[in-house]
Specification:
Shape of chain B: globular
Strand order of the largest sheet of chain B: 1-2
Shape of chain A: globular
Structural class of chain A: mainly alpha
Order of helices and strands of chain A: HHHEHHHHHHHHHH
Number of domains of chain B: 4
Helix content of chain B: over 70%
Strand content of chain A: under 5%
Number of strands of chain B: 5
Number of domains of chain A: 1
Distance between the termini of chain A: 42 Å
Oligomer: heterodimer
């Protein structure tokens, strides 16, 4: 039982920490581009501001639209509870929970995108179309990475893959493969979490947006929940990446938590570096970008199957 | 068996009742009641067999060649019987409401044929000898042709019927050849007698397996044998489409699994072939579905996709036996069977919803719809659950079976032999899931959400209890299986073990279901709903503290948004279809102010119909043989007799 409490506490810790990661990314960008920039905790103040605001609902919308923030936050939290955040085991673990992890995130996306079409806006329809297009491709690449991890560790659950000694063994026996998985996952993370070079979170033109345009009609507390869910999703996938990079099974709890925080910090800085180094890709190029990320994992899978 | 047969008798009685009382007010009510009762009786022995794992059968002596006629239920047929009776009862009730909308088409022939079709399907699934099987098979084929022709006044239905009857008879021909090879050395044509002779030479086994893939494949409708399926599903009345998609095409799957029990574990190449066909069918099916504008054709292509997923499970199961991994075989076959059942449930919901939309708006073209969620809220609720189930998200039944297929493929990756290559199908299945999500966002969003695009969508009214009730009941079953898979999984694994040829006592099935994590799915579903409830409470509080205003949708500052400004279904699907290029089978038209895309069936329009012309021209060459003159036909008869006599003489001389 205390073990379970510790895991729940870790989840809560990550949930509190999550809004910091986008802040780290934008701080990195402002440092690299020699600007003053917003403080690291900007998202916390944004969320606090939004929850106190009133909201405006479009008259076209139905209950689906109001379900969006609830579904998004729920799905990301439940997905997070399947990830071994503490480096050993998740709150929820069972054979094949990798599939549940991805499909629960898909459930959130399903409601989000339906909510976009609920407004009857052409902007949001466009964003929805782009989101499902790129998400389908990301799903393909993500499952190649999962299949590689599963083949490498002979495990069917995220806790087994990331929290078992098998991953450390794979690092020592076939490091190139794991490095390719890590690189592939980072490429997909940028696409999945709507960061540059796939999407530009700072753009102000509706026609160039992907994620931002889907939530154009959300306001007040609803928008706060959606922004929070996105930040948490970034942390969850970042944590997955961190756990692949450092198999910390043997360490003490404090050290494992430290590895997680450091990993999330590195992911935030990495996103910031990418965002200041390259512009958003033209939309027709995005599938190629995702295919590149998938190909990295595919090479790893072939190496591991050999 | 008595219970099953009396259930079938009630179905026949339903057909007679609806014919006899065709002008009576309560004829339809009596019909629906009798069908529901008959299906309720029929499902009892099937469930018994599933949970006990023991088969029952009864023998009817027959003086015909081919031995006794045996009718029985074993775990394999029981799975399909449950799907048949479940979908059948729901579709009959729905059908009464559905047919009442069209005063020009008399409903009673459709209803009578529908319940007789249920009987034919049940007989196909229960027949355990070649003669009754093929007899029921033909009854089923003809019954479904007549059902497609219910709205025969539309040219579309007549064309669909023609394509269907050609396809199904081509398949039947392959089945005749298959059974001829299978039974060539035996006088007893019962399945049990044929199954004992599994030590047949490998050449014959290969022939049987390939012919089964063609013959049953036409019925199952995987790519490239799917071409009859979209026109037939679109033209038939919606409750019939539900039966077709839920059960009729599954009979093809049943046939393939039955052949496996007859000839024993198939060789590895067959398993790879089925896995490959399944994967390509799944990806192409969902891709082609994305391109459709007709909502029923779209759903029909999704059946092609789901048959693909079922075949992936089946292929993995066959590979499991071929490479000697019994647990993988049971898991693969079990996953295929569970997905068969699940697909029957959620696809029926979706066809019911599509039918209600069609009846109340008069169109199946998604581009003319929109905003129906406000006008048909219960239809939308059931449709949304069905959509979520078909894309495979938790906590619904589609997730459970896709998760099992995924597990089988992941586990294949652990082995050290060639089987580990099967893990490469994992990302393919994930891509299918992503594309299905895109497709059902398109359907749900364009048909039910947003603003009405035409007056047809604007004037739709509530469909009523007969059209909304059956899909809602099935949606509840979908949620039930998704939240408590531990109740449904063990019987599927028993049936899977039966197909794999491994006697598996029921307790082991329970242990195996636990081993694959069926209980934790329920925990996950509970966590999901509790978290959602918690977040809902928080959201409710936050929303109450601040003022709420209502306004127009943001359209870049423009104050007069119109329905025409909405994204269309064509535009929504365009980016994905462009990525797949030619493979996606669309013709697009671009102009300064229009974008329009039009789907083409790559197999039917580009291959089957051109080849059909070749066959027709060849057939015309034979026409001089048939001139309707008696003298000439007498000459044909006499020359045949002479030729046969000559053959006998030559054989006698050779001896």
């Amino acid at each position: 039982m205390p073990e379970l409490m510790m895991r729940a506490a870790t989840l809560l810790f990550v949930m509190l920490l999550a809004p910091l990661i986008p802040g780290i990314a934008s701080r990195t960008r402002s440092i690299l581009t020699a600007r003053r920039g917003a403080p690291v905790w900007q998202l916390y103040s944004d969320l606090w501001k939004l929850v106190r605001r009133g909201s405006v609902y479009s008259r076209t919308t139905t209950v689906v639209f109001r379900l969006v923030p609830i579904a998004l936050v729920t799905c990301v939290i439940v997905a997070a509870s399947m990830l071994p955040l503490d480096g050993r085991s998740a709150l929820l673990r069972f054979p094949g929970d990798v599939v549940a992890f991805a499909y629960i995130l898909a459930l959130g996306r399903f409601v989000l995108v339906l909510g976009a079409l609920d407004t009857g806006s052409s902007f949001e329809g466009m964003g929805a179309s782009r989101e499902v297009t790129f998400a389908a491709l990301v799903e393909f690449g993500f499952f190649i990475a999962l299949a590689s991890l599963s083949v490498a560790t002979h495990q069917l659950s995220l806790s087994g893959m990331l929290g078992s000694p098998a991953l450390a063994d794979t690092w020592s026996s076939s490091a190139p493969a794991v490095i390719m998985i890590v690189a592939g996952l980072f490429v997909l993370l940028l696409a999945e979490c709507s960061r540059s070079p796939v999407d530009d979170p700072t753009t102000h033109l509706e026609l160039t947006m992907i994620h931002e345009v889907i939530v154009l009609d959300h306001s007040g507390p609803d928008l706060a929940m959606i922004l929070y869910a996105n930040a948490l999703k970034l942390s969850v996938i970042g944590a997955l990446l961190a756990r692949v990079i450092v198999p910390a099974m043997e360490f003490s709890y404090a050290l494992r938590l430290g590895v997680l925080v450091a990993g999330l910090f590195v992911v935030g800085v990495g996103i910031g570096i990418v965002e200041s180094a390259m512009a958003r890709l033209r939309l027709p190029k995005v599938p190629l970008y995702i295919a590149g990320g998938s190909a990295l994992s595919a090479f790893a899978l072939i190496l591991l199957l050999q | 068996m008595i219970v099953l047969l009396s259930g079938l008798a009630l179905l026949v009685a339903a057909a007679l009742a609806v014919i006899a009382m065709r002008n009576h007010r309560h004829g339809n009510t009596l019909f629906a009641t009798l069908v529901v009762l008959g299906c309720g009786l029929g499902v009892v022995p099937a469930v018994q067999v599933l949970y006990s794992g023991t088969a029952t059968s009864s023998v009817f002596s027959s003086a015909l060649p081919g031995g006794d006629w045996i009718i029985g239920i074993d775990p394999l047929s029981a799975v399909f019987l449950v799907a048949l009776f479940g979908v059948g009862a729901a579709a009959a009730v729905y059908g009464v409401g559905y047919m009442a909308f069209d005063p020009r088409t008399p409903a009673w022939p459709c209803h009578a044929l529908f319940s007789l079709e249920l009987v034919a399907l049940a007989l196909v699934l229960c027949a355990q000898a070649i003669m009754p099987f093929m007899g029921a098979w033909e009854l089923m084929a003809i019954g479904s042709l007549l059902l497609i022709l219910t709205e025969y006044r539309h040219a579309e239905a007549r064309r669909a019927g023609l394509i269907y009857i050609v396809a199904t008879h081509a398949g039947t021909l392959a089945l005749f050849a298959m059974f001829a090879v299978l039974a060539r050395a035996s006088n007893d044509w019962s399945f049990s007698a044929l199954a004992t002779g599994t030590t047949s030479p490998s050449g014959a086994r290969i022939a049987v397996l390939v012919l089964a893939l063609v013959g049953f494949g036409v019925k199952a409708g995987f790519v490239p044998l799917h071409f009859w399926l979209p026109p037939a599903h679109a033209a038939a009345p919606s409750h019939v489409s539900a039966l077709f998609s839920g059960v009729l095409i599954k009979v093809g799957v049943y046939g393939l699994l039955r052949v496996i029990t007859l000839v024993g574990p198939p060789p590895a190449w067959w398993g790879w072939l089925v896995l490959g066909l399944g994967l390509s069918s799944a990806v192409l099916g969902v891709l082609w579905a994305l391109a459709q504008h007709d909502i029923k054709r779209l759903l029909a292509y999704h059946s092609v996709e789901n048959i693909g997923i079922i075949l992936m499970g089946m292929g993995a199961g066959a590979l499991g036996t071929a490479y000697g991994h019994p647990s993988l075989a049971i898991l693969g076959y079990g996953a295929a069977l569970l997905h068969t059942l699940n697909h029957a449930l959620f696809k029926s919901i979706l066809f019911f919803g599509a039918g209600a939309v069609y009846r109340l708006t008069g169109t199946r073209n998604m581009e003319e719809l929109g905003g129906l969620a406000r006008r048909m809220p219960l239809t939308w609720l059931a449709f949304a659950v069905g959509s979520a189930a078909i894309i495979g998200v938790p906590p619904l039944n589609g997730f459970v079976s896709e998760w099992l297929v995924f597990q089988t493929l992941f586990r294949a990756g652990f082995s050290t032999d060639a089987l580990r290559i099967a893990v490469l199908a994992v990302p393919g299945l994930a891509l299918v899931g992503g594309l299905a999500l895109a497709c059902f966002v398109k359907v749900g969003g364009v048909v039910f959400l947003g603003t009405p695009r035409t007056s047809r969508a604007l004037t739709a009214s509530k469909p009523g209890l007969l059209l909304d009730g059956p899909p809602l009941v099935l949606a509840a079953v979908c949620v039930f299986i998704g939240c408590l898979p531990v109740l449904v999984l063990p019987p599927m694994l028993i049936a899977g073990a039966f197909v794999a040829g491994m006697p598996l006592p029921p307790p082991d099935a329970g242990a195996m279901a636990a081993a694959v994590g069926a209980k934790e799915i329920s925990i996950m579903a509970a966590v999901l709903s509790l978290t959602a409830a918690g977040i809902w409470l928080i959201a409710h509080r936050l929303r109450r503290t601040a003022p709420v205003r209502y306004s127009e949708t943001w359209s870049g500052g423009y104050g007069l948004p119109s329905a025409r400004m909405q994204y269309t279904a064509s535009s929504f699907a365009a980016p994905l279809l462009e990525i797949f290029g030619r493979l996606s089978g669309v013709r697009t038209h671009r102009g300064a102010s229009v974008f329009h895309s039009e789907p083409v069936d790559l197999v039917l329009d580009s291959a089957v119909i051109p080849w059909w012309g070749v066959i027709e021209r060849a057939a015309l060459r034979l026409r001089p043989l048939q001139q309707g003159r008696l003298s000439r036909y007498l000459m044909y008869v006499i020359s045949t007799v002479v030729a046969l006599l000559a053959y006998l003489l030559v054989r006698a001389g050779g001896r």
